Amino acid sequence: MVIQKEKKSCGQVVEEWKEFVWNPRTHQFMGRTGTSWAFILLFYLVFYGFLTAMFTLTMWVMLQTVSDHTPKYQDRLATPGLMIRPKTENLDVIVNVSDSESWDQHVQKLNKFLEPYNDSIQAQKNDVCRPGRYYEQPDNGVLNYPKRACQFNRTQLGDCSGIGDPTHYGYSTGQPCIFIKMNRVINFYAGANQSMNVTCVGKRDEDAE
């Protein structure tokens, strides 16, 4: 015996849906009474409140072990790396003296790189240090921040300072200025305050082999 299910009209479906959303006889909203909804909301409020408090406490404890000024772990780099400026993609600075467009971008990069080393800016932000001595700024029990670096004035670069330079850092005359930049490593002391000596020569074809 086959029992054919009665097909409901569109009006009946709407009425059933309205009764499910709000049943005036049982005072249920979406199948639950107000008390049931209150318990559910209270449970999730307490549950997510506990998760938020635990996450906040964990982050606070972790931040107490981290300094705002010194990285916690810096053992990946025992000695500072060196970079050249102007910064290029493969560290090769290739220019054509007769083509200003080939070296104009390098000049613009050097202008931007050396701008913070203008004498006036260095006098405002950094201290004059005595040559031949490390410039240490110990905390002595009290945080001594922000620490100030030693002044390095752009005028010390002489012909490579780019100040009033008609040769554009020497690029227009085939004697370009290349700067070597040492990355900062905290608590690294250069050996005996000796300056590095760097010899620069033009790249030869056999060097690329």
From TrEMBL:
It is found in: Cell membrane; Membrane. Signal peptide: none annotated. One of its GO terms (molecular function) is ATPase activator activity. One of its GO terms (biological process) is intracellular potassium ion homeostasis. Keywords: Cell membrane, Disulfide bond, Glycoprotein, Ion transport, Membrane, Potassium, Potassium transport, Signal-anchor, Sodium, Sodium transport, Sodium/potassium transport, Transmembrane, Transmembrane helix, Transport. It is a single-pass type II membrane protein. GO terms for cellular component: sodium:potassium-exchanging ATPase complex. The chain crosses the membrane at residues 37-63. Belongs to the X(+)/potassium ATPases subunit beta family. This is Sodium/potassium-transporting ATPase subunit beta. It comes from Neovison vison (American mink). The lineage of its organism: Eukaryota, Metazoa, Chordata, Craniata, Vertebrata.
